[in-house]
Design goal:
alpha/beta, binds magnesium ion, 4-stranded antiparallel sheet, 30% helix, binds adenosine-5'-triphosphate, nucleotide-binding
């Protein structure tokens, strides 16, 4: 299908082999009315035409406000939800269309770390059983003894004491629980890990430790990450590239440096203006952009550019024509804005 953004996912030279190619990804959740005779009265357009390439060993940040479709995108790639349209090609196979044994194999290779370590771990299972569960489900890892030694090894890899294998989640702190979640995600030796706001529920002092662990594991195991976050400050140091999402679509995509110093989409510029700046000189010169109004409902998104209702640059053109996610200006990154231009002094 032609993609809604008008762009096709293209691999970027110099970033390694493409490992996952997502094209035209769409997820609509039907809105129904009535109890006996359910009739469809609309759709929540949670993801509405997303294209990107994830490269081997890369960390791609996915950033945007609450409800813009980040977790839905993650679930589509994990096949926890089935896409309405689109393809996600991993290792020559389409995750969206995979069935049976092929889907099971794909599920081993793509794992997820959830947002909330307090609710994502079963409180009635020991951490040993939690980490071993994927091995049991997929029938790998040998006998009980071999699995236990793999679990001890995984506990050690994520910086937990292997002697705590029989403890329960409530006996660990938030940061330690997220390490358990990471160990579980690693159990099947995946190639891709989707981290859905892995540090948002943790104290700021603990966040850096978990991010450092993820970086260490990536260097040692050659993992590729999709790292989802609410705001741009969290992803800055871990991401090679950043995709900014608004109402189900990517509005800007570029390397960390391009996004932080040469963002051209007004929405990205507004998000950047909210990132704390430690340097007082830079703080004095920076431009603060306050967005008016709320994010419109994904059941009834604005025509044309979805950001136009909150954008200070919007004209009639923005209501009539959806801007494609293409290269704008001289910078080699993608921006979906008719009036894309670099703004000075947003982040100092
Ligand atoms: N199972 C579902 N049924 C109906 N609507 C859904 C479902 N899951 C998500 N949505 C809707 O899809 C939209 C995108 O939700 P999603 O959870 O993907 O956003 P998000 O970017 O992860 O937000 P947050 O930052 O709050 O985690 C929201 O409007 C949400 O209400
Ligand atoms: Mg989410």
């Amino acid at each position: 299908m032609t993609t809604q953004t008008g762009a096709t996912a293209v691999a970027r030279p110099g970033l390694g082999e493409p490992i996952l190619t997502v094209n035209g990804m769409v997820k609509y959740f039907p809105i129904t009315r009535g109890i006996l005779f359910r009739s469809k009265i609309g759709d929540v357009k949670a993801v509405d035409g997303v294209d990107f390439v994830l490269h081997k060993g890369e960390t791609l940040g996915v950033v945007g406000e609450s409800g813009c479709g980040k977790s839905t995108l993650a679930k589509l790639l994990m096949r926890l939800e089935t896409a309405t349209a689109g393809t996600a090609i991993y290792d020559g196979r389409d995750i969206v269309a995979a069935k049976g044994g092929e889907l099971r194999r794909l599920r081993r290779q793509v794992q997820m770390v959830m947002q909330d370590p307090y609710t994502s771990l079963n409180p009635r299972m020991t951490v040993g059983d939690i980490i071993a569960e994927p091995l049991v489900i997929h029938g790998v890892g040998g006998n009980d003894k071999a699995r236990e030694s793999r679990v001890r090894e995984l506990l050690d890899v994520v910086g937990l004491n292997p002697e705590h294998i029989n403890r329960y989640p409530h006996q660990f702190s938030g940061g330690q629980r997220q390490r358990v979640g990471i160990a579980r995600a690693l159990a099947l030796n995946p190639e891709i890990i989707i981290c859905d706001e892995p540090v948002s529920a943790l104290d700021v002092s603990i966040q850096a430790q978990v991010i450092n662990l993820l970086e260490k594991l990536q260097a040692e195991l050659g993992l590729s990450y999709i790292f989802i976050a609410h705001d741009l400050s969290v992803v800055r140091h871990i991401c090679d590239r950043v995709a900014v999402m608004y109402l189900g679509r990517i509005v800007e995509l570029g390397t960390e440096d391009e996004i932080y110093s040469r963002a051209t989409h007004p929405y990205t510029q507004a998000l950047l203006s909210a990132v704390p700046v430690p340097d007082p000189d830079a703080r004095e010169h920076r431009q603060i952009i306050r967005l008016s109004g709320d994010v419109p409902s994904p059941a009834n998104p604005p025509s044309g550019c979805r950001f136009r209702t909150r954008c200070w640059k919007a004209t009639d053109l923005c209501a009539q024509e959806t801007p494609a996610l293409i290269e704008r200006e001289a910078d080699p990154h993608l921006s979906a804005c008719h009036y894309a231009e670099r703004a000075e002094h947003i982040i100092g």
